[in-house]
Structure formats: structure tokens, C-alpha cells
Amino acid sequence: MSFPYKSVLIVGATSGIGAGMADKLVGVGAKVIAVGRRQDRLDSFVEKHGDPSKAAAIRFDVTDTEGMDAFVQRVLTEHPDLDCVFLNSGVQSMTRLSRPAEFDLAAFHNEINVNFSSLVNLMIKFLPHLQAKTTPTGLIVTGTHLGVVPAVTLAAYSASKAALTSFVDCLREQNLHKPTKIVEIYPPVVQSELHDYAGPRGRTYGMPLDEFTERAYAELLTGDELIVIDSIAIEPRETYMKLVEERRRIFTKLSGVMLKHFEL
Q1: DSSP assignments along 4-29, one per residue
Q2: pLDDT for res 198
Q3: What percent of the chain has pLDDT over 70?
């Protein structure tokens, strides 16, 4: 089975999972529009693949709310064939809640904004375009296992990803009658710059990026709307998946009750 989308916008494509998936999707024949803050890495991505029909790039900071409409309009003007948006940008830092007098509220709210609010903005802005197309379209979001079970020292990251997962669940359920497939990926810890706060060893934590990329791509081909790769390291996958599946079951049941009294 081939990848169902031909023109993919990847937000957060200059490092980690986003960069790995950008290279992979170009390799399987999709056109990728890479988005990130670092112009040098965007230039390297375009030069690496060498064909503007396969690789393009736009510099944008997802927290730039004032510039978001112009960014979305530019993407759709330059790439009207866009049929998939892959939202992957994110930051992670440790939060010491035991010392509230030292707590950096601005940094906390910035992490929530990058990981959650800015991605909500992008989903809402791009969905009308995707849903108006007559060919298959997709919205793919990178979540995390920590959106299900929080990590005690990663409060902002865990909270932002829990909010993201809840939003994606609601977005998908309210749009089941529309053609755009809404997919969330739960990665394990993956070796990337996301963990640079941990010092020199940070990029050695977790699954090698190439391995994750291949597994995530294979799962995307199945058509599943929730892709769960491995589990939280301290628990067997079977135990964790029971929690994930029970959560989905209860959410679906509750949604059925509530949507009987809600006009979509």
C-alpha cells in the first residue's frame, strides 16, 4: 500500500521526528513542504532533495499568531494541491513545582502555547481547505504517551500533550461525517533534540530516530486513526494498551450520548 497523500505540509520539520518524517515522505514520492524556525535547516532540506517538485520550505514560528493567517494563505497559494497537514512542532523542559517562588510561569505558558494552542490554531485554519477537497486528505498530529500518563517532572509537556490529545479526540469525533482523516501518533521517547535540556546524554535517550520513522510510516499505511508505538517504558505494552483502549471506549460512549443533543 502506498502513502495516500501527495502534498504534505510538515510543521516542525527541522529536527527530530518532523525531520525524519519529512525525508521519509519525500523518499516515498510525496511532495513535502517543510516548516520550521531555522532557515539554515530548511535550506539544507531543500538542497538535500534537490527537486522543487519534491521539497519546499517555509520559515514560520508557530507562536506567531499575528502572522498565522498570512502563513496559511501563503501555503495554500503556493501549494493548492496540499492534501495533508502533519503537525509535529514541540518543546519539552523540566518543571520543578516544589519551588513555586522560583517557577517560571512565562516559560510554562510558552511550552503550553507551542505544544497545544498553536497547533489548535493550525488545525482550525487548515481544515476548511482539507475538507473541501474531493480527494483523500489527512491531518496528522504527533502526541505522546505522556498525554495519557503524565511524567512528574515534565508538567508543562505532559499537560500540553494531554490537552492536545483531548482536542484531537473531540475534533475527530465531531468530524466523522467529513472526509478528512484525523490521525494522532503516540511516539515513545525518540532520540532527538527535544531532550537537550538533559545535557549531552539527552539525544541518546530512547528509540533511534530512523527506527521510529520506519515504524511510524508503516503504521500510517494501515489507515488507523490512533497509532501507538511501544508504550511508557516502565509498563508492558499490553497493560498500557488496555488503558488506552478503555479510555477510547469510554470517550466514544460519552460522545454518542452528548452528540444526540448537539447539532454538528
Answers
A1: S-SEEEEES-SSHHHHHHHHHHHHTT
A2: 54
A3: 95
For 59, the 3-state DSSP assignment is: strand
Q: Nearest to residue 118, comparing CAs of 144, 142, 90, 96?
A: 90
Indicate which CATH number applies to the domain containing 147.
3.40.50.720
**What is the separation of C-alpha 200 from the centre of its chain, rounded to a whole number of angstroms?**
25
46 within a domain of the structure (yes/no):
yes
- Residue at 2 is within a domain: no
- Nearest Cα neighbor of 27 from 214, 177, 251, 163 is 214
Q: Is residue 54 situated within a structural domain? A: yes
Looking at residue 202, its pLDDT comes to 54
What is the structure's pLDDT at 257?
Answer: 97
Domain that holds residue 234: 7-259
Give domain status of residue 180, yes or no: yes
Q: pLDDT tens digit string along 201-229?
A: 656 577 899 999 999 999 999 999 999 99
The answer to whether the CB of 60 falls within 8 A of the CB of 67 is yes
Evaluate whether 181 touches 136 at the Cβ level (below 8 Å): yes
Tallying the residues shown for the chain, one arrives at: 264
Q: Which grid cell is 97?
A: 513545582
